[in-house]
Amino acid sequence: MAKKRRKLGRRIALRTLIALVVALPVVIALAWLAFQHKPGWYHPAVLDDVRADRARAEATTMADDVSGKIVHAEPFELTLTEREVNEWLAVLPQLAPEYQRSMPRELSMPAVSFEDGVVRLGTLCDIEGWRSVLSIGLRLGLSGDGRDVEVALIDARGGSLPVPQAALDRLFGAILDEERRLADERGRDERSTLDDALSRVSGVDDLYTGIKVRNRFVWPNGRRPIRIDSMSIGNGELRLRIEPL
């Protein structure tokens, strides 16, 4: 009886091993397809020369218009659409060459999406022929008293696969270290509200829980302070009401 049970156990183990060997290529293929998957919202702008010129002109006009209202202390509404922002991202290397120098060469074609209370950011990552869309989702909103902008990481993905927590810890750890180094170089007088918020972040768990950024920002032209009076995100638009201080 014991000998029969051992033979039965070996047959079951052998069949299980064969099933795993047969299934493994399928599992690998499915995982690869999930990793290669392009999110439906990810639509980076690909511009010809005419559209690129138009995007640069629109970005410059928008920046000048916003700057003028802030300098004259005028509260105003600002609406940004996915199309506009994605086109501006496409021409950002020409508008701000320092952006291109700071971006890792493995990353290209950034894009954003404005969903219900969520901003999604994605970029194409190409490492030695391994290509995937890396993306994060951020939930944004104002605190009840309007004193803070609340930011929470809701997901991070490679294709349609979640990025492992350990990988996020290493990635965000490196980013936080670099941001803190730059903040130290700028000195206390030049520290931004984002610098102060990041100084209180110890890891990815804090980002998932959510952080608060003081609702007071400085517009670079003239170092003018501003706050966000209201914010709404959805239907492909980010709507802000800006109040100069």
Model description:
- This protein is globular.
- A hairpin with a 3-residue loop joins strand 2 and strand 3.
- The longest helix is centred in the first third of the chain and has 35 residues, at 2-36.
- The chain has helices spanning 2-36, 49-71, 82-95, 97-102, 165-186, 193-198, 204-209, and strands spanning 76-81, 107-114, 118-127, 130-142, 148-158, 161-162, 211-214, 217-219, 224-234, 237-244.
- By secondary structure, the chain is of the alpha+beta class.
- Helices cover 46% and strands 31% of the residues.
- The strands form two sheets. Strands 2, 3, 4, 5, 6 and 7 form a six-stranded antiparallel β-sheet that branches. A four-stranded antiparallel β-sheet has the order 1-10-9-8.
- The N and C termini lie far apart (87 Å).
Fold blueprint:
Layout (H helix, E strand, L loop, with lengths): L1 H35 L12 H23 L4 E6 H14 L1 H6 L4 E8 L3 E10 L2 E13 L5 E11 L2 E2 L2 H22 L6 H6 L5 H6 L1 E4 L2 E3 L4 E11 L2 E8 L1
Antiparallel strand pairs: 1-10, 2-3, 3-4, 4-5, 5-6, 5-7, 8-9, 9-10
Helix pairs in contact: 2-3
